[in-house]
Amino acid sequence: MVTIERPVTATRAPAGPRPRRRRPWPTIAVFLAPALLLFGLLVLAPIAVAGYASFFTWNGFGVPTEFVGAENFRRLLADEVFAGDLRRTLLLVGLSIGVQLPFSLALAMLLHQPLRGRRAYRLVFFAPYVLSEVVTAVLFTMIFSPNQGLANHVTRLIGLGDLGATWLADTRTVMFSLFLVISWKYFGFHTLLYLAARQGIPQELHDAAATDGAGPWRAFRHITLPLLGPTIRISVFLSVLGTIQLFDMVWVLTGGGPIRSSETLAVTMFQEGFKRFQVGYASAISMAIFLISLVFGLLYQRFVLRRDLEGAITTMGDRR
Amino acid sequence: MRRWSRRSVLGLAGAGTAGLVLGGCGGGSGSGTGTTIRWWHIANTDPMLSEWAKMARRFEADHPGVTIEITALENEAFKTKLTTNIQAGDPPDIFHTWGGGVLAQQAEAGLIKDLTADVGGWRDTLIPAALDAYTIDGKVYGSAVDTGMVGFWYNKELFARAGVTAPPDTWAGLLDVVRRLKAANVTPIALAGKEKWPGHYYWSYLALRIGGLDLMRQAGDDKDFSRPDFVAAGARLSELVALQPFQTGFLAAGYSTADGQAATMGNGKAAMELMGQWAPTVQNDNSVGRKGLGDRLGFFPFPAVEGGKGRITDAFGGGGGFAVGMNAPAEAIEFLRFIAQPDNARIEARTAGVLPVVAAAQDAVTDPNLKLVARTLATSTGFQLYLDQTFAPAVGQQVNDSVAELLAGQATPEEVAAAITTAAKQG
């Protein structure tokens, strides 16, 4: 263990108009170099290489030589599978924001009430989040298994017959089954976020509202919800980015099938790159995923998170 | 949140970077006293897992200073890992290969050794056509280890229950058997729809029976899969699909999973499956009590199609072999020669239920069904490698994808032919 013996303040300049201090550039460079090197090598370089490869027809063996310009991107824009991926991503985003997050919010409000066994509930609801996506997917392939699966046992018990057998095997239901599994895994995480934020709202506000005659709904609508705003906005952000990059769960659960009815952007990229050895085209898809995430991230920060980020510690100098 | 998906995006790109950076560097094995041979194979379950480990230990004992490092992976995991390594310019010294289009691409990029001169010594000990899948432009790039063919495995008891006395030898006959099985409340066919390769067997075999071996050769040359014979194959398959012969939820079923194709067959829940020579072993492994069907299991070749140019004796299948990485030490080839000795080939045949390519080892095949497959193969009039192996990967995967759409009732025979042709022209 290293402890800093000397108080940090000892090096500070005395109060008053501060002279413009020379920054210790060499020191900064020495300490920053390893991080920059790793970041450049592991993050920036692969992006650059993928960008480079996306302009070639390349099977991944040897060095790319067959330059085709923007052909891969033109093909991508005309690709029905890619269009389908985008549609499916939008569907999942819509379902997450419209169903999963409100459910998590409602649950968080419920768990905030003085409830017997509240801690146990929290633990149980959060437990799925701890499992890896692969474990979750394997678990649900067993649950949705046509003969011995739990889903079928349940549907038989309530008189619906073998309904569960085709949840993953039918092109019309597979996306909803997938959404169910995603929700099962992630609702606890969002619930926890909301619960933590809810507990940070001072009780006085609700007391005051009650004194003014506001009912529970009005108190929720005008006090709780606005104050949960920053948390909700972050939770939507995480949810959307996660959905855009969704891979493992789909890969293990359905492999993108039946046919391609549950294929996501990342699954298509994997198929093209590792199954069809069309690495140039796969790189174009990876660039598309990267750009979609980037554009979404920037726009979201600019227009939605702006208020929340104001006054945050990441200001540049005195500028806000 | 979903960290892995990000990483796979970068991983793909990263593999590319490594490929550029490491492209020229050597593997660094095989100098001085200690030589390490990295051996990647797909026998990740016993008995072959331990048999091959024992074989490696015996080789090490005979060759002081040589260490064989074994990596045994499941099929799909193997393909992904190998692809990454090969793209990084670092192929293992010895690795499993199915030959065909993928091997050709690897050879073209100069990533594997030309074994033509080396196999000369032992090629006469192999059965004819053993090296066909590994021969590209007259050069041999792999050493065959096992071989086999695809055919119908059937449950004799369930056939009897439906009043079927003899396996069908025509397509019409097969459709009739399916109808009878349905009438007797038996699921006619088990199929793994989640994995698409088992489905592609149907379309490929039909194309082979209708158009003959020449059809495949032509399509490989001129990249045209829209000939009437290919469309006809799709149309015949549609006839089967229309009878709804597959088990409930087959589109989400895996092959060797708890409730998958092999388990459905091995537990007696379906009457037939179209699968390669390994089917009985996998059925046993995935069935309740690991017993499989035992004596109730039978085998018959894919039926002939009325008026087709192909013969019922033309076989469709493939096998496994080993390729040698470009930087492998000389001992790696020595080890392949060692594996190809009849005594070692017999071990495979006896314990793992595979059909060896070493002629002298054929006597070690004892299972009656496997003997039947071996005999069918030995008397075959022609041989076609799996389509998803023989053509470039992009074409092979399109065959799998398009046939899957047909099986799900979502594509017409014409659309299947057109999509494969498009992929072939693009590649």
TrEMBL record, chain A:
<dbReference type="GO" id="GO:0055085">
    <property type="term" value="P:transmembrane transport"/>
</dbReference>
<feature type="transmembrane region" description="Helical">
    <location>
        <begin position="236"/>
        <end position="259"/>
    </location>
</feature>
<dbReference type="InterPro" id="IPR035906">
    <property type="entry name" value="MetI-like_sf"/>
</dbReference>
<dbReference type="Pfam" id="PF00528">
    <property type="entry name" value="BPD_transp_1"/>
</dbReference>
<feature type="region of interest" description="Disordered">
    <location>
        <begin position="1"/>
        <end position="20"/>
    </location>
</feature>
<comment type="similarity">
    <text>Belongs to the binding-protein-dependent transport system permease family.</text>
</comment>
<feature type="transmembrane region" description="Helical">
    <location>
        <begin position="123"/>
        <end position="144"/>
    </location>
</feature>
<keyword id="KW-1003">Cell membrane</keyword>
<feature type="domain" description="ABC transmembrane type-1">
    <location>
        <begin position="86"/>
        <end position="300"/>
    </location>
</feature>
<protein>
    <submittedName>
        <fullName>Raffinose/stachyose/melibiose transport system permease protein</fullName>
    </submittedName>
</protein>
<dbReference type="InterPro" id="IPR051393">
    <property type="entry name" value="ABC_transporter_permease"/>
</dbReference>
<dbReference type="InterPro" id="IPR000515">
    <property type="entry name" value="MetI-like"/>
</dbReference>
<feature type="transmembrane region" description="Helical">
    <location>
        <begin position="174"/>
        <end position="196"/>
    </location>
</feature>
<dbReference type="GO" id="GO:0005886">
    <property type="term" value="C:plasma membrane"/>
</dbReference>
<feature type="compositionally biased region" description="Low complexity">
    <location>
        <begin position="1"/>
        <end position="15"/>
    </location>
</feature>
<keyword id="KW-0813">Transport</keyword>
<keyword id="KW-0472">Membrane</keyword>
<feature type="transmembrane region" description="Helical">
    <location>
        <begin position="28"/>
        <end position="55"/>
    </location>
</feature>
<keyword id="KW-0812">Transmembrane</keyword>
<feature type="transmembrane region" description="Helical">
    <location>
        <begin position="279"/>
        <end position="300"/>
    </location>
</feature>
<keyword id="KW-1133">Transmembrane helix</keyword>
<feature type="transmembrane region" description="Helical">
    <location>
        <begin position="90"/>
        <end position="111"/>
    </location>
</feature>
UniProtKB/TrEMBL annotation, chain B:
<dbReference type="InterPro" id="IPR006059">
    <property type="entry name" value="SBP"/>
</dbReference>
<dbReference type="Pfam" id="PF01547">
    <property type="entry name" value="SBP_bac_1"/>
</dbReference>
<protein>
    <submittedName>
        <fullName>Raffinose/stachyose/melibiose transport system substrate-binding protein</fullName>
    </submittedName>
</protein>
<dbReference type="InterPro" id="IPR050490">
    <property type="entry name" value="Bact_solute-bd_prot1"/>
</dbReference>
<dbReference type="InterPro" id="IPR006311">
    <property type="entry name" value="TAT_signal"/>
</dbReference>
